[in-house]
Amino acid sequence: MNSSISSSYYNNSCLCPLFLVSCGGCIFDKNKGHLASPRYPHPSPPLLSCLYIITVEPSLTVTLNFTDSFHIDSMDTEQGPSCVRHWLQVSIPDREPMKLCGGKSPGLIATNSNTVRLDYHTDDEGLSRGWSLDYSTYKIDCGEPEPLLNGGVIFLSGFQYQYRSVIQYHCNEPFYTLPGGINVTFTCEADRKWRSNHNDVTPTCIPVCGKPTKLISAYQRIIGGSDAPDDTIPWQVLMNIDGARGGGMVIGDRWIMTAANVMSKGNQVSKETVRMYMGLTDLKTQLVSPVYAASIHIHPEYNNPNNVDFNHDIALIKLQDVITFNSSIMPICLPAEGATYVTGVMG
Ligand SMILES: *[C@@H]1O[C@H](CO)[C@@H](O)[C@H](O)[C@H]1NC(C)=O
Ligand SMILES: *[C@@H]1O[C@H](CO)[C@@H](O)[C@H](O)[C@H]1NC(C)=O
Ligand SMILES: *[C@@H]1O[C@H](CO)[C@@H](O)[C@H](O)[C@H]1NC(C)=O
Question: Keywords on this record (predicted)?
Answer without folding.
Answer: Disulfide bond, EGF-like domain, Glycoprotein, Hydrolase, Phosphoprotein, Protease, Serine protease, Sushi
